[in-house]
Amino acid sequence: MRQSLYVMAFAVAFSSPVLAQDGAQELAQARQAVDKATQADADQYAPDLIDMARQGLEQAQRAAQDRRERKNAPALALRAAADADLARARSEESTAAAQLQLHRNEVQQLQRQLQTGEDR
């Protein structure tokens, strides 16, 4: 009886890391990163990067389902998340640059109006 308890405890202890290797947490993080990048208009501002992230996520999901490839799923998911994060950052950078240019144009217009005495 005691020996079977040890065997069961041993099996449980070593099955947890195997379950952790399927990359469920990393896959969830990658999905969330792709969603955030999509919401940040990465399709418009960083289409190549968001496509790579989506393909990487799909590859990670396939790996998680394949018994022989399961150990690769976390690394693939992390790569997809990094690509998605970069796509989001580039998209946000482009959006900020466009807003900055808009504000600069407004300032220039106001300066011209002041110089010419318009709206008086």
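^ that was protein a. below is b, sequence first then the tokens
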Amino acid sequence: MKRRTGIVIIAALLAALLAAALAWAAFAPLRAAQADRRELLFEIPKGTWERRMKGDKTSILPEQLTLTLGVRDVLLLRNSDTVPQMFGPVLIMPGQDFRLPFGQAGEHPFDCTAHASGRMTVLVEEAPAAGLARLRWRLHSLFNETSANDA
């Protein structure tokens, strides 16, 4: 009987800890304390242009990237290839980084020579409001690294 009571107490404590963690995740402010934490890095690997010229349709970048205002709202493209790459109107030379900050939510299409389709969209979302929306956002960020948002 004593053992069963101990198990019930432990289960109740674990449930209370889980509830407290979920409440924190739902209501704690979002922040990106350091400027570099606001960046979402995508690297164009060496040999990308060569593979594309041989007819390889493998995408280096996803069709769509998702950023969140005030948390992770700077796209950082790193050209590790041996040839220049175009992203929108910008020519990114080999070995060069290009930082593109976003200050407005919306869908932003770009021409992109490193992408198999030649196009890529950056979806910039508003920071989620406190409550269930923020909890969902944090859980999604935790389990979906391609969104790579700071939880």
